[in-house]
Amino acid sequence: MDFNLSSEQKMLVETVRRFVENEMLPLEDEIEETGRLAPEKARALFEKSSANGMYAMNIPEEFGGGGLSAVDTMLVEEQFGHAKDILIRRAFGNVYEVLLKCDAAQRERWLLPAVRGERTCSIAITEPNAGSDAASIKTRAVTDGKGGWKITGGKHFISDGEFSDFFVVSAVTDPNAGAKGISLFLVDKGTPGFIIGRDQKMMGLTGTSHVELAFDEVPVGPENLLGGEGQGFKLILETLGRVRLAQVCARAVGKSVRLLNLMISYAQERKQFGKPIGDFQLIQQMIADSVVEINASRLLVLDAASDIDNGVDARDKISMAKFYVAEVLGRVADRAVQVYGGMGYCADLPIERMYRDARIYRIFDGTSEIHRTVVARSAMKHGEALYGTI
Amino acid sequence: MKVLVPVKRVADYNIKVRPKSDGSGVELANVKMSMNPFDEIAVEEAVRLKEAGVATEVVAVSCGSAVCQETLRTALAMGADRAILVETDVELQSLAVAKLVKVVAEKEGAQLVICGKQAIDDDANQTAQMLAALLDWGQATYASKVVVADGSIEVTREVDGGLETVRLALPAVVSADLRLNEPRYATLPNIMKAKKKPLDTLKASELGVDVSPRVQTLSVYTPPERKGGIKVGSVAELVQKLKDEARVL
Question: Considering the entire predicted model, what is its pTM?
Fold first, then answer.
């Protein structure tokens, strides 16, 4: 068992980190002040990362992506996590693995342009009454008798919806089949009856839009159906686990690392009572706990990713990582504010916004409670297989 | 034209270095190491010469222990074609490195060696000059612009009084200054390809070169912390303090 990174992995991680620090972090203050990333800056960022082969690194090479394994994807996603969500989206792309389910014709229209960064995609599953319980969606796709459907219903909190060119939309095609009656559709912006609603302002994640979507008999054909009728819920379970591990868990580890870096440098620099506050043991405890929890977080993420690479069902491990890593981020962010004191509460420094950004990690992509439930149920079913070595 | 680029593994520029507790040197255990930033500029320049069709091959060379392979892989990921590790566990000083690189340059038939002007660890700024002397080639240090044409090379140098442009016959040694270029990020495909590019190892002990140290480090310590100043009321008081307390008069 070798826990060391290979020389490629090191280079990859260092290169991405450098890119994040030089090209992305300097843009953060302006986003926070203006509430948006200026389009020309977003464009320049995309062009630079794309020229370096850093866009859509998670997608297989045969479709024009970077072809990274799940483990390597997590390593770079951790580095992405140092930056704000909107910057990550524009620089590295949120090209969701579910698009790999596109058939040959769909690839040309949706997958390949997404990998090239010409079109961007949002996932539209969440509804006001269907959050963690994604199978309880009300959005309906009713057959039009000619092989197509008409979609009616509404979604909310759809991340990046203002910017996206197309959406992966979940809708009920067979109301009598429960979770097996849900299908996924690729719906282009501009389709008649499809309305992108208002941006729902959030506590954090400044610069990323979260919109309401309304569907009023939106016509879609068989060419819009992703992965077969009634396959939607299965596809969500199959493909969103990896997205969750990458975009939530690995990025949360990166955020914790950035916060701890800031914490440590401040603890050494800030003097009270004639010595650096890092000399006080109560501060040291906050540092030590953060160090250990961050290392444990990363190991959970990489372990789950390694299972994905080995073709092992990683859903339980992803759930373990999801709530643990998100809660570690919450604790580290809280300690960072505490170590910085008034300066941590002051919006002049990034700690304040990172603290706000951290809060959503325990909520989106399944709350801590849902993922704890998954883990507990699985433990009672499988016992030691979930936490032992035998 | 074959271009040789010597690269050095040094403590990363972001690291706050500190002396070892016994004062024998700088603490490097558990310290992030990277390619010397001036060497990155040198690699970038060589790769640009290759991209412009001026250079036919870019070979990176590093002298030191096996871990220097990492630095060479970085050079390969930036676009160098091949790499050579001159392996030794002896601590190398500038003269030893210059002698080893000389052997490699001759073996390789390099027409141009581009070095970083200095390494950020010891800031010695002498390897390129020593190398040029040992090879008996022309040298142009502190380059901020390099143009190769018809068997000669025109280099703009950053000197104290401004910019100086010199023309040298090839083969030659050039050392890169900060403003020569802005090194690129290694691209993902190049990082993945770096492992497949050839990296040869030569044993320093087999190159017939005396690499024994010429300079002995007596001790390494942090400079004394600067003390706060005081305000004096009059010239007389100032003179008195300079005499009696500072003892400089």
Answer: 0.88
